[in-house]
Amino acid sequence: MAGHENGVVLHGDPEALSAAELFRLIWESLADVLGTAAAAALLRRAIKQTVTRISWPEPVLVIRNGLDYEYRVPEAWTQACSEEALGALRVLATELRMLLVELTGPVLVRRLARLGPLRDRGIDFSEEVPK
User: Fold this and answer.
1) Over the chain, what is the mean pLDDT?
2) What pTM was computed for the model?
3) Count of CB atoms situated within 10 Å of the CB of 48
4) Nearest to 11 by CA among 83, 113, 87, 117
5) Is residue 127 scored above 60 in pLDDT?
6) Of 24, 38, 69, 130, which one has the fewest beta carbons inside 10 Å?
7) Which residues have a Cβ under 8 Å from the Cβ of 119 and sit 6 or more positions away?
């Protein structure tokens, strides 16, 4: 069964989506509104903050490829039920949410908060910023 969220086609049960597929949903949602350069800048900053908070032996990489940007997730993130990968993605989402609220206001946070697969996996993009 395929799902569809903001132009991203998701296959299978939302509960079985891998951290890589969920990150792709975040990436494509941001890039759709901001473009890949701005999405890359925000995610790089969030990744940098995440690395200071958790032990992350293989973080997500956001790299430039010609005029565009792309990302690479750790291999472990491609496994559907990796709680460790989902935990790291949740921390990354928290850092990203704080940046988005601070730099862009509520619009992008609301857009991400509406994405069911993220909510279903405990990835919180509510507008409230933790203290």
Assistant:
1) 86
2) 0.84
3) 11
4) 117
5) yes
6) 130
7) 113
Give dist(CA 42, CA 37) in Å, integer: 9
Alpha-carbon span 39 to 102, nearest angstrom: 15
The answer to whether the CB of 59 falls within 8 A of the CB of 45 is no
Extract the runs of DSSP E, i.e. beta strands, from the chain: 2-5, 8-11, 61-65, 68-72
Residue 60 has pLDDT above 50, yes or no: yes
User: Cα(50)–Cα(76) distance, rounded to whole angstroms?
Assistant: 17
What is the tens place of the pLDDT at every residue in 71-97? 999 999 998 878 999 999 999 999 999
15 against 113, higher pLDDT: 113
The bridge status of strand 8-11 relative to strand 68-72 is unpaired
* SS3 state of residue 55: coil
Length of the chain as a residue count: 131
The whole-number pLDDT of residue 81 equals: 77
